[in-house]
Structures are given as structure tokens and as C-alpha cells.
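Hey, can you fold this one?
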Amino acid sequence: MRKMTIIKSKNIILYEIIGILLLFTIFYFIIVNKVSYAFTNDPNALYDSKINLINKMAVLYGEDNLDLFDEQETVYITVSDLVETGYLIADDDHGNVSDPTSEVKKLNELKIRIAYENGEVSTKILS
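Sure. Predicted structure:
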């Protein structure tokens, strides 16, 4: 009889642990969904994220190619140039970088101004 009591108490503890884990899992998914943008497909947030990535890659391109600034302080490139040189990955096999706010529009022809002033590379997307 004593054995049966121990087994029952161990089962209760096991069910309590499973219940607590289940509750924590439910709370986790509710909180992460409300706080995190990881599960949203907001086109404007995706566009801003892609523009930030393009800016960072353009800065990296300028820092890696400082010889471009030997004769001039400003260089103009396009997003296509970043794709061709391997600084950006295209969204399709044709080398296109798509705009998340539009299914047809591509960002390949966006012009980027890269300037080298006072030992620092700065970029600005023109349009």
C-alpha cells in the first residue's frame, strides 16, 4: 500500500510540472506576439529594415573600396552595383531587390551617394 501512495504523489508532481510548462508556453507566445515584431509582416517595417541594410552595405562597400575616393570625395552607385559586387543578396535569380511595399516595384535603381570625409564613410539614399 505504501508503494501506491508514493507512485500517486509522483504522478501528481509530474502533472503539475507539465501544467506549469504548458502555462509558461502559452504566456510566452502571448507576450512575444504582442511585444515582438518577429511575427508581423508590416510592409513599411520591412521596407525600413531593407533600406537600413542597403545603407550598411553601402558603408561597407565604401570602406572596402577607399581607392574610389582618391580623385573625388563622393561616389554614386546603385543597389544593382551592391548586388553585382556581392554586398547584397538579390531576392530572385535575375538580381532584383524587391520593394516590400509593392509586388512590382524593385529597388535596384535606387541611387546611393557614398561620401568619404574626415576619414569616415557616409551614405545617403537619393531615390
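The two ends are 81 Å apart (CA to CA). Let me know if you want another pass with a different chain boundary.
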